[in-house]
């Protein structure tokens, strides 16, 4: 579908992409984490897209099996939500992932 | 106002009250925390009350200066949101507060 293609293009053309909602503290946490690591994520606020928001959230669910926000991609790879991202960082695996994706 | 009186009654008649939204992970965290401490909070899901939800959230803001969820009360006392509650627990101050309120 067109939205699916648009998501795939977005996540491959941007180092970090976070599908988010403006009021959500878990989304805030994940955006802050990336900024602290020196990376400016591309943030797509699903609640600011009118009726397109829920549509996008549905397509994301089809693509990632995840229906929640934040929905996080690094180097085109789906890494999960807030807890997954924080875990990856605590294990020391997030920064190497970012460095490798940057290098490409 | 009637809603203000209803909130005051609710928070004084229940050991722990959490004003919450069903989809919110910060609210889930706080509910889980109290259950782990052996306390069953009274949970009011603001997104399940139709038009009353936003009204209640406004009155809570007037009463507590807090417009966000979760909005947490222990022993009738406003303690704050998720971060405040977690902090209080880490400092070892939450359980004494619960014990004292239970005693009353
Ligand atoms: N463990 C997940 C929790 C994700 C989650 O439950 N997200 C909530 C918001 S905090 C959500 O998307 N709720 C449904 C919605 O807002 O559409 C994570 O760490 O990201
Ligand atoms: N630091 C606060 C953050 C509270 C917060 O930003 N809550 C969000 C949801 S996670 C909120 O209420 N947003 C506005 C709304 O949903 O009406 C806490 O720990 O509770
Ligand atoms: S909406 Fe509260 S943490 Fe996401």
From TrEMBL, chains A, B:
Sequence similarity: Belongs to the glutaredoxin family. CPYC subfamily.
Protein name from the UniProt record: Glutaredoxin domain-containing protein
Organism: Microthlaspi erraticum
Domain annotation Glutaredoxin: ranges: 16-79
Domain of life: Eukaryota
